[in-house]
Amino acid sequence: MADGFSTGPSDLGFTWENLGYGPYPLLSELRRRGRDVVLVGYHERSASLLQNAETVMAAVIEAIDRRVGDHPLTVGDFSMGGLVTRYALAKMETVGIEHQTQLYYSWDSPHTGAWIPIALQAFAHYTKKLDPRFSDQINSPAAQELLWKHIADWEDKPATSERRLASLRALGESATGPSRGRPG
Fold first, then answer.
1. Which of 41, 91, 135, 145 is the most exposed place for a label (fewest CB within 10 A)?
2. pTM score of the predicted model
3. E strand or H helix at 75, and its extent?
4. Following CA atoms 144, 89, 57, 22 in sequence, which dihedral angle do they give, to the nearest 10 degrees?
């Protein structure tokens, strides 16, 4: 399971606690049913999806190397993590790396683009002098790759970011698997 969008490094302890023992204990239920769970985190969650996919690819390879037996993997996650894992698996197929994944899943992942209202993006940029964090998050590589329409500053016109177009091209260049049949 790969982490979703935010800023800063992943907090896997928080994720494990929340998904393992929170109101919807998904991880505890999976482990109760005899499944091993690997959480994948990033040094920077708002980095490029393509960059974070490298982390997922390394985690898949390590999971294969460390598993006992030959049970196929299930790989995916919710929100941005579903897109990162989708790209990672497709890239592995394209370059000839066996991922041994039987099931890819995504839950609430913005496959056709995330939507943050333009007015909210504008507000983030308008208040940048008071606190730049929200504006910086809106302009992060991951946000630009996820957002259907993006504005980079207060007076900008809504458009598809060049970063999004480049990430969609990279995904489209992946030959098979989870990347096919899904619109960008």
1. 41
2. 0.88
3. strand 73-78
4. 70
